[in-house]
Each structure stands twice: as structure tokens, then as C-alpha cells.
Write a structure and sequence with these properties.
5-stranded mixed beta sheet
Length: 336
């Protein structure tokens, strides 16, 4: 998330950590609640990754990847998008509608369509096949950046700068959430699971909602890092972010820190995916790690992104994980 903020020339102002309310804990509670996953969390992993030959993004940053309708769709910097039926052979989208100056910050699939959101001028677009795209006429975000989107409970929910959120049943017509601005200055991650949406962002500010319309603050002193990713799998939410920090929760309200993350303290966990009975997390310094339960993690000993590989996106589909980085490299793993 920090990389996106810097790229947009924005700073986190107008909020303070003291503004956090519901779900807070004392410093003592924070220390005692951490789970020691043991030294094994830093051992090498067996997951094998392969870089693909196609470079539809050139050297451009890949921000997000989604799976739906039997294809992967990746989005990124300079309005670029690409699609693939197998995660190996990729084709560039000829017109994403975002323009060359419009970075695409996120993508989700639901109700037989893909919806992508932009980090510039509140742009959105939708597609039934991931190939041909139509611009949304009014995202309700104005000129603000949209940083995350998810599908759940028969609706899309999008979120971004100034804590703004909006929802849509079809990805075409959007309604602004009236009480979301207490989550400031930005929301950078969102997921659906266990009958609720959970969002997270600046300095661990979080909230949850059963319908995407009415939201409850779930911020806690247990999570004091900028959240870049949230995923739901195996009956729990897992979040990751700055300082290589991670946490997990069965309900999205009460959280427990992962004690021994395999990610460097100077790293940022940019994305996490769930599939094939495991979580896989990727980091800005090129690290990949996996976990069967979201608590005990193992680092992948070798991957095609290399050190400082800037891995920024990952998803699961068609029996494989697919990830992308800040230099336009795409790689896949069968997850075995």
C-alpha cells in the first residue's frame, strides 16, 4: 500500500491512531495474545514456481489478479490488463477504458462479470469476459482513488481513499456508503467470508459489515501496521501488511497476531490468496510463504521473482496460484 500512496503523491494526514475505537486492547493484551508458531515457520518450502514467457504488461506494475469464468485477469499500471485461460499464456487487453495514465488498482469477479477499479479519478470498468470492457459512468468516488474491491452476499463492495466505500449489485450502478468515512485516510484491502465483509487500511484501521452498507469499527491495538491484504479461507480471515506482519481471525472482529512471520521486518506483505488447502502470501522484497492454517508459515526457498522482486498480486484458480510483480513478471505454481 505504501508504494501506491507514494506513487499517487499522497500522504496519510487527517487521522490519528487515537481515533481508533471498537475492539481495542491494552498493550499487555497485545503482547500476551501473540501465538508462537515456532522456528519451523522460517524453514524452506516445497512449493515450486515458474515464470511465464509472456510479458503483456511490459515493465509495468501488476496490482491485482482475479479468477472467474474460466480465466485469470490481471490488472496494473498504465491502464494495462491481460487475460489467460491457464495462467501460462497471456493476452493483453486492447482497451481497458482506464487510459494510459490510469492505474488499475484492483479487480474482482462476481455475478458473471469482472469489475476493475482505478487509482486515478475514481474510474471503474466491467466486463463479462475479461476481454472487452465498459467504463462505469459514476463510481460515486468522484476524483478519489479506489484501491480495493470484493464480491460477497450478491454485491460488489469497493473502497479507497478518504475511507470512501460504495456497493453495487451488478457492478454497473453504484451507491455510496454513507458512514464509511470514519475509516481514514484510506482503505486498501477488503474480503468477504463468514457472512461478512472485512476492510483494512492505514495503521491497522479495520471495519466489518454483514451487508456492505452498514459498517462497524473493528480496529484494535493488536494490529498497528498498514494493512495491504485480507483473504478468507479455512474458516478464518488472514491479514498482512507492513513490517512483514500478519494476523488472523475467525470472525473478522477479534484478532490474533502471527508471532513468527517468515517475512522480513522491512518487507510489506502485498497480497494473500487461499486455494488448494493453503494460504500463500507474497511480499514486496520478493518473498513467498505458505501456510495450511494461516498461523504457522513456511518460506518458499526459491522463486522466479528473486530478491527484491516486488511481488504485488496473487490469486488461485484452475489448480494453480498465479502471481505478478512490479516489473510485469508473471509466475505460477501448482501449489503442491
Amino acid at each position: 500500500m505504501l508504494a501506491i500512496v507514494l506513487a499517487l503523491g499522497m500522504t496519510a494526514t487527517g487521522c490519528s491512531k487515537s481515533s481508533k475505537s471498537g475492539g481495542s486492547a491494552s498493550e499487555g493484551e497485545a503482547a500476551n495474545s501473540k501465538t508462537d508458531s515456532g522456528a519451523a515457520a522460517k524453514s524452506g518450502g516445497s512449493t515450486t514456481w515458474t515464470a511465464v514467457k509472456d510479458r503483456p504488461f511490459g515493465e509495468n506494475y501488476i496490482t491485482s489478479i482475479a479468477w472467474g469464468k474460466d480465466k485469470f485477469v490481471a490488472v496494473g499500471q498504465s491502464g494495462k490488463m491481460a487475460y489467460s485461460s491457464d495462467g501460462v499464456k497471456w493476452t493483453a487487453v486492447s482497451d481497458s477504458t482506464f487510459g494510459r495514465d490510469g492505474a488499475v488498482g484492483g479487480i474482482a469477479f462476481g455475478k458473471d462479470k469482472f469489475v476493475a477499479v482505478g487509482t486515478v479519478e475514481g474510474k471503474m470498468a466491467y466486463s463479462s469476459d475479461g476481454v472487452k470492457w465498459t467504463a462505469v459512468s459514476d463510481s460515486t468516488f468522484g476524483q478519489g482513488s479506489i484501491l480495493a474491491i470484493a464480491w460477497g452476499k450478491d454485491k460488489f463492495v469497493a473502497a479507497g481513499w478518504d475511507g470512501k466505500m460504495a456497493y453495487s449489485s451488478d457492478g454497473v450502478k453504484w451507491t455510496a456508503v454513507s458512514d464509511s468515512t470514519f475509516i481514514c485516510p484510506y482503505i486498501s484491502a477488503i474480503a468477504w467470508g463468514n457472512d461478512k465483509f472485512v476492510v483494512g487500511g492505514w495503521q491497522g484501521i479495520m471495519a466489518y459489515s454483514s451487508d456492505g452498507v452498514k459498517w462497524t469499527d473493528a480496529s484494535t491495538l493488536l494490529i498497528d501496521f498498514d494493512i495491504s491484504s485480507i483473504v478468507f479461507g479455512k474458516d478464518k480471515f488472514v491479514v498482512g501488511g507492513e513490517k512483514g506482519e500478519m494476523a488472523y481471525s475467525s470472525d473478522g472482529v477479534k484478532w490474533t497476531n502471527v508471532f513468527d512471520s517468515p517475512f522480513d521486518k522491512n518487507d510489506v506483505i502485498r497480497a494473500i490468496a487461499w486455494g488448494n488447502d493453503k494460504f500463500v502470501a507474497v511480499g514486496w522484497k520478493g518473498q513467498i510463504a505458505y501456510s495450511s492454517d494461516g498461523i504457522t508459515w513456511k518460506a518458499v526457498s526459491d522463486n522466479p521473482f528473486g530478491k527484491d522482486g516486488g511481488i504485488s498480486a496473487i490469486t488461485y484458480g484452475k489448480d494453480k496460484f498465479v502471481a505478478g510483480n512490479r516489473s510485469g513478471v508473471i509466475a505460477y505454481s501448482t501449489g503442491k
